[in-house]
């Protein structure tokens, strides 16, 4: 398995291909069939589990929970029509910008 960011793009392609698939055969298809609200709820749950792991568990648990969080975030992106390349472009646009300046610019 790849250990660089291309794994995210590959996983996204797999997730997007599951949209409309049989929800009895695929967990991803089941998430899609339950709607954006349920997908968003799962992102929230996995976020909390990642935070709990970061605060009180081992680095291995943080890795595991982070993988779950990233997977569910990718499902949400696919449901919203957002591609990883869109997010990478936004990160690239922000590169070299002070985090404080970037956040202040959003308020304008």
From TrEMBL:
Pathway: Amino-acid biosynthesis; L-histidine biosynthesis; L-histidine from 5-phospho-alpha-D-ribose 1-diphosphate: step 2/9. GO terms for biological process: L-histidine biosynthetic process. It comes from the Bacteria. Its EC number is 3.6.1.31. GO terms for molecular function: ATP binding; phosphoribosyl-ATP diphosphatase activity. Pfam families: PRA-PH (PF01503). It is found in: Cytoplasm. Its main location: cytoplasm. InterPro entries: HisE (IPR008179), PRib-ATP_PPHydrolase-like (IPR021130). It is an enzyme of class 3 (hydrolase). Keywords: Amino-acid biosynthesis, ATP-binding, Cytoplasm, Histidine biosynthesis, Hydrolase, Nucleotide-binding. GO terms for cellular component: cytoplasm. Belongs to the PRA-PH family. PANTHER family: HISTIDINE BIOSYNTHESIS BIFUNCTIONAL PROTEIN, HISTIDINE BIOSYNTHESIS BIFUNCTIONAL PROTEIN HISIE. This is Phosphoribosyl-ATP pyrophosphatase. It comes from Telmatospirillum siberiense. The lineage of its organism: Bacteria, Pseudomonadati, Pseudomonadota, Alphaproteobacteria, Rhodospirillales. The gene is hisE.
């Amino acid at each position: 398995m790849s250990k660089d960011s291309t794994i995210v793009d590959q996983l996204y392609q797999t997730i997007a291909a599951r949209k409309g698939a049989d929800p009895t055969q695929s967990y991803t298809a089941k998430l899609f069939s339950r709607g954006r609200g349920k997908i968003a709820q799962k992102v929230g749950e996995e976020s909390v589990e990642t935070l709990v792991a970061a605060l009180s568990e081992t680095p291995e648990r943080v890795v595991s929970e982070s993988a779950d969080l990233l997977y569910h975030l990718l499902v949400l992106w696919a449901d919203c029509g957002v591609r990883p390349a869109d997010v990478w472009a936004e990160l690239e646009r922000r590169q070299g910008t002070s985090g404080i300046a970037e956040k202040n610019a959003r308020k304008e």
